[in-house]
């Protein structure tokens, strides 16, 4: 553990103007506040914040960041308050400490909810000052270094999974590769101990068997470059155990089948020398097609710059080579921290683009699970590059679609997307983008995000925006159903009411707005009796169930989106013209059934609503079963009947194959019951069809 004078001397070595007295006071404060607290290792607890501060000095961060590192656990683990911090160390330090501090343990929250709320607070603080992230990453790194002292295996695994899913990717996204690699390695050891032991053991064996081989290859690379007049530094190493494990898992190969175990780093004096070195290496050894990446001309989102290539060395050995300048190397290893030297006074040069996306996800996410899921997507590591027609570059996860691209450009563009062109060709919206694709989004002001998009988008930003729109539309449609139900309930009151009665009812039920009231009615959060009593106190309190006024008219269903406020039951597939009834359950919307549906008996726990089809209803999907003779052309004849009757086939499935018949179930878009009946009649009249029925 760093002694007090050692920590202060480290800071003064790169920042002679630092307030020595303030640093000493912060060190003493954390020692006193943590007092006799112990870590799982048995060490004094204050050794942890001191070591975190030491990590910050290695990055040469400013005085406020060092003090924040020393104090970052005092608010959570001692009686110290943020106000105490502000009084003693100033508002800037207090704000940073508050950002790093986790929320107090709230017993009523689940583990995922606590994790999500901690992450929410952390990301909001980070958006205001990125030093919060730097301290948090150092805090997590030191905790991972001492994780083995925790006795509970489950707790070690939980912390490791959180590190692997959240903090290591965050370190990668800000370019702090040293932190990322070490966190991944320590987490990998806990999550997959057998795989960790196997891979590290095999790497150690390779090191012993061919220890001189790495140095020999590095020397030959250096000689080849020096022979062309380049001054370079070359070093080699085995690849990171976790990256080897990921490659084995992704490619479904064994350790022996991984050919590029060795990686070499070439450091040059200038950017021009990087490209010269690349040309020399490609002339000297055969390069592997598809493995060259130019991150100098097109840096990664986190600012990482380098040339990557893979070569076939002697005896078909494959090696990876990274070529960069010394300055690029330093910035690549410590990323964001390299731009945050004390000289900058701790002032950010503006929000990072991906960080803005995270903040948008915070605003859009509905619950803990959704926040964690979308955040993990947003910080996912593997990226591709895609361009707008005007040449603007966007980085997206592998597997991203035009919808992901549209939301990356702007939320409004994503919401209005109706089509896309990739490299000038029209493509479906679910098409996966490739590296270097030029993407043009076709939009319409009348368009809106579709629920089905959630089945193929891969970015957290797109998923969060779509879900937010779906929730808003669902709420509006549930409120629309609630208003119709409210109007019907009003007709059953013993006397007429005015507009003021509704406003009074909203207040009596302690709801914020009339919209909230209608939503509560539509989602069955309040029942008819509560509504009546709120509108006219005393009108329903003493009415016995047998005398309770029943629904007097059916509620018309039109203009609502299936799957939002209501859904058409798949057991009976009701279409306009069928007599229908709705089953309403709290928080689940209204399920619409045909009145003769056998599944209605399962709705004893639901509130039954009398429904009717509005005269302007646009149609629905009907399902029928057809038995066709097993001979050539019968399926085509059935399809021809659908076409002649202007019915679109949504789904067709063969359910039975038994000579001399084939049985199919078909979902059709039809206008109404009469339309579906005509189709069934036409099928029955066909020589190709043995039997046809609606189901």
Automatic annotation (TrEMBL):
The HD domain, residue ranges: 45-144
Alphabetically ordered keywords of this record: Kinase, Transferase
Presence of the UniProt keyword Kinase in the record: yes
The EC number(s) this enzyme carries: 2.7.6.5
A Pfam family reported for this protein in Swiss-Prot or TrEMBL: ACT_4
GO CC annotations, alphabetized: plasma membrane
Gene3D superfamilies: 3.10.20.30, 3.30.70.260, Beta Polymerase, domain 2, Hypothetical protein af1432
Residues covered by the TGS domain: 382-443
GO molecular function, a single term: guanosine-3',5'-bis(diphosphate) 3'-diphosphatase activity
Entry similarity comment: Belongs to the relA/spoT family.
Name of this chain's protein: GTP pyrophosphokinase rsh
Organism: Novosphingobium hassiacum
Taxonomic placement: Bacteria, Pseudomonadati, Pseudomonadota, Alphaproteobacteria, Sphingomonadales
